[in-house]
Amino acid sequence: MNVFYTGEIQVVYKEQKYNMIFDTGSTDIFLNSVLCKDIGYQKGNQYNSTLSPTYKNIDAETYSYFGSGEIGGKMAIDTFFVSGQEVKKVQFFQITKDFGQAFESGQFDGLIGLAFPQLSGNQKTIVDYMKYQGLIKEKKFSFYLDRKNESKESYLDFGKVDKKIVDGEINYHQVANPLYWSILAEGFLLNDYDIGLCSNDHKCVLMIDSGTSLVTGPSQDMQILTQYLNDQGLQCKDISQMPTLTFIIDKIYYHIQPEEYVITFKGIEQSVYEHNKNPTECINGLLPMDIQDTLLDSFWIIGDLIMSKYLTIFDMDKLRVGFGKLKSYDKDFYEDLNFKKNILNFFFLIIKNYIQILGISKQSNLQFFHKKPA
């Protein structure tokens, strides 16, 4: 039912490759290492500091919580290669211990956080390093996440926005709290009906998180929404009758169709993250999650359900998020650095983790593209 997006980086040498999740919902960098003896980590590529001439040790450790548990890390500094560009003296955490199942599958080797530095004690992000070292001119990056299993068109672009693939204008929205990539919605509709969840007087905070596949919202709001949906015993044949969800942001309407928020699958072992032609079971992908924020309330998390429909721009310099409707584009403009499609049974993981959504959940496929030199 769910997929995650991974992009390839290299550490120390271009031959040492790691498949990483690029997560706009967190800030730190975690890299699988030989210091972690858990079985899941040994399935993937493991960083070994003793083999690196550029490694520097930092006497600091951390523990970070994700929906599936905690991971422990030991701080280090080393050289990264991102999109073929050498990024020097990157501070990151070598994973030392997994207290849950965050990386158990072994299908990815770490996590690169792309949220704001303030979220983690002003820890620099990979975007900061690239800007300060002159590799990019602006602290911005753009995603296109393609949810089609047969497609290989997802990409992440640092430092620029390719407007040639956008149909019309890019709509920008100011960040509500510069810890998260959060924007404010003044309205929420089921079809054309306002059910009162978001208003000008009580705006909903939408966190745009590349690490989340489903839609989460405050439990009280989700209870109201579920009552309106009345989807108990949802039959797959009824999907077309389900309402369209619409968030209104700065008077712009963003729609999520029922075939996008209803999860269809042919059984847990064969679940996919897209609408099946002949599904046997269906369930809505709306989950309650209460997130405490000192500045904001009514906190929702939306990931690819929005990001897969638009070129999504994260602009750190101007504190804004942009959405540009995609048009068909000529892939000759791009050079594929690496793309790997990993299908992970997220529904099964949710059950195993007692209906806890993975903080780094986005498990689908990310691919790096950059423009070929002229």
Automatic annotation (TrEMBL):
SUPFAM superfamilies: Acid proteases. One of its GO terms (molecular function) is aspartic-type endopeptidase activity. This is Peptidase A1 domain-containing protein. Keywords: Aspartyl protease, Disulfide bond, Hydrolase, Protease. InterPro entries: Aspartic_peptidase_A1, Aspartic_peptidase_AS, PEPTIDASE_A1, Peptidase_aspartic_dom_sf. Belongs to the peptidase A1 family. Residues 5-324 form the Peptidase A1 domain. Disulfide bonds join C198-C204, C236-C282. PANTHER family: BETA-SITE APP-CLEAVING ENZYME, ISOFORM A-RELATED. The keyword Glycoprotein does not apply. It holds the Pfam family Asp. It comes from the Eukaryota. The active site is at D23, D209. GO terms for biological process: protein processing.
